[in-house]
Amino acid sequence: MFRYGVWFCVCLWLLSSGCFLLDPNEPCTRITKGTTATGDPIIGLSFCQAEGRCEMVEGECKPTSDKHCRASELCKEGLCSLQNGVCALIDKQDCLRSGNCKTLGHCTLDGGKCVVTTQKECEGAEICTASGQCHFQDGTCIANSEASCEASTMCKEQGKCTLQDEKCVIGSDDDCVKTEGCKLYGLCSHEAGACIAAKEADCLGAEACTQGGYCTVRDKACFVGGEADCLRTTACKTHGACSYLSSTSQCAFDSNCRQAPACTVFGKCIFQVDKCVATNALDCRAAQICKTKGLCGFGGGACVAISESDCRLSSECQSLGRCNLSSGECVE
Q1: What is the DSSP track for 229-242?
Q2: Bigger pLDDT: 257 or 50?
Q3: What are phi and psi of 190, to 5 degrees?
Q4: Contact of 81 with 87, CB cutoff 8 Å
Q5: Separation CA 205–CA 226 (nearest Å)
Q6: Residue 21 pLDDT greater than 70, yes or no
Q7: Closest CA to 278 of 315, 316, 240, 306
Q8: Between the N and C ends of the chain, which has fewer C-beta atoms within 10 Å?
Q9: Is the pLDDT reported for residue 261 higher than 90?
Q10: pLDDT confidence bin for 22, thresholds 50/70/90
Q11: Is 310 helix (H, G, I), strand (E, B) or coil?
Q12: In this structure, are strands 324-326 and 329-331 parallel, antiparallel, or unpaired?
């Protein structure tokens, strides 16, 4: 009649015929909510991904090569080689190629399992660089020094910089202050094992405040609290994004650019599309940038220096010696 995996034509009475290809391994590679051969649930994985059972053999999904096993979840624990129709742990090389060797230091075959047995295995594992668990003790990798905690990725990202009970944990506000989360989002205070925003100073010192107006602390995080927060931002000063949009709790562009620092400082007084821009010499000459930098004329969509006299009258001529006109700027 027909075979899987080959082209064939199906002719139906009074209907047009067509040619198509069936994939015999599709049930093995399709994402399923079934169970593995051991009865464990498979959620979001195919039989191929979970157990290396990638090919249909006599109506059943089975592994047919080492390649299938080594690409499967089973290889994380060292079951990386094909043996008697299943993925199995057969020698020390399987431990070395296992996922748990790389992540947990389980690189030595002992008693039919891959385990960690040396200090070197702990130090070479991801658990050392990620979690500070670099010291071998009683068959596992543990954290045993403040130095290993402070050097870990979790210290930088989550504030887990303090040694406690052979693990790295968040010990104080000082640990949170070391994190990118503090610098970027104001998560600088310690509470119940996590870094949070607890006071206004946490938010006011964060990049999210100066860039997006997230300057008000609420519910352990930083939010845009109103127009006062928007007025603090660089986007307000340079582009006129000074208005508070309550529907989204974000800072937005105000079509009345003349009220924004973007106009008074940089001469960007006209709203176009989604931002304030400079469009004429009158606005440039009235702006602070004319007095400080001599950029009193308009050209190329921006305020520029157009005369030696403007440069000589600028404050930067007096303080920095930038008194000469060159390519639209005042220079030394």
Answers
A1: HHHTSHHHHHH---
A2: 50
A3: -95, 130
A4: yes
A5: 17
A6: no
A7: 240
A8: N
A9: no
A10: very low
A11: helix
A12: antiparallel
Q: Which one, of 265, 270, 267, lies nearest residue 254 by Cα? A: 270
The owner of tokens 């927060």 is 229
Q: Six-digit token pair at 131?
A: 């979690």
Please tell me the predicted confidence (pLDDT) of residue 11: 30
For residue 114 the two structure tokens come to 């891959």
> How far is the C-alpha of 87 from the C-alpha of 100, rounded, in Å?
16
**Reduced 3-state DSSP string for 126-189:** HHHHHHCCCEEECCEEECCCHHHHHCCHHHHHHCCCEEECCEEECCCHHHHHCCHHHHHHCCCE
pLDDT in tens, 69-116: 999 999 999 999 999 999 999 999 999 999 999 999 999 999 999 999
Percent of the chain scored above 90 by pLDDT? Answer: 71
Answer whether 0.85 is exceeded by the pTM.
Answer: no
Q: Write phi, then psi, for 235 (nearest 5 degrees).
A: -65, -30
3-state secondary structure of 313: helix
- Tell me the average pLDDT of the chain: 88
Residues 6+ apart with CB under 8 A from 215: 200, 203, 204, 209, 222, 224, 225, 228, 229, 232
Q: Using alpha carbons only, give the angle 300, 305, 307 rounded to the nearest 5 degrees.
A: 125
Q: Is pLDDT at 51 greater than 60 in this prediction?
A: yes
214 SS3 class: coil
